[in-house]
Amino acid sequence: MLLRKAYAMLCKTEEWITSLGIWFLSLLLIVNVFAREMGESLYFAEEVGIFLIIVITFLGLGYAVRQAKHIRMAAITDMIPTKAAKAMAFASALMNSLTMLFLVYLATLYMCEVRSHRQITPALAVPYWVFLISIPVGFLLAGVQYALTFARNVSEKEIWASFEKLDEYAEDP
User: Which residues, other chains included, contact 107 with Cβ-Cβ below 8 Å and sequence gap of 6+?
Assistant: First the structure.
């Protein structure tokens, strides 16, 4: 029960952060266009825009996996028997989860390396590494989603494209 509530809260948080990031990025760019037309650009617009793109991209990764909006091998799985497709779903979810967790490790190393340089952004004077926090977090959320997909495929007969979504293309040829 507690795990379900935590999962639901995480899902809503991902959705809100991604939605607000897209909304704020759009607003920032529109306001900056008008400001440039009046002769003064917002000095921080580029840095904040880059930060928002990083956040939207990497925190949106877990959301995309949960909604099964990632690339799948439907052309192949449609042509093979259900048992083979189920085995591919196992392998795919497991390998993707392990890959995402390895990318968490690499992204964390990179973030620590950037942090050790003690560089700050020119306009906002924010340490560069702060912009990178969402990268390992996003990979971790995606890795957890793929692990949940793997667990769902192990525990149930149907083929699941994500923890929440059945593979709508799964049929026996």
Answer: 132, 135, 136, 139
